[in-house]
Design brief:
The structure is a single chain. The protein is 20% helix and 12% strand. It contains two helices and two strands. The mean pLDDT is 84. Strands 1-2 form a two-stranded antiparallel sheet.
Length: 66
């Protein structure tokens, strides 16, 4: 069953951002999709201080009101 694992490419190696639930030495197939940050995706949607926008977009303690 396919699953999405976010990773960062550094020094020729894909490094998972979080815990990966796979057995050691498991072979996998990687399909690469470039992901932009929340800051880049929402750039220029409204005017505000760049530092504040970055904080709001990347702070995991903030949640959306429903």
């Amino acid at each position: 069953m396919p699953k999405v694992i976010q990773a960062v490419y550094e020094n020729g190696v894909f490094k998972p951002v979080g815990k990966v639930d796979l057995p050691e030495h498991q072979w996998v197939e990687i399909n690469v999709t470039n992901v932009t940050s929340a800051v880049e995706r929402t750039k220029a949607l409204f005017r505000a201080d760049a530092g504040l926008i970055k904080f709001i977009a990347e702070d995991d303690s903030l949640t959306w009101a429903e």
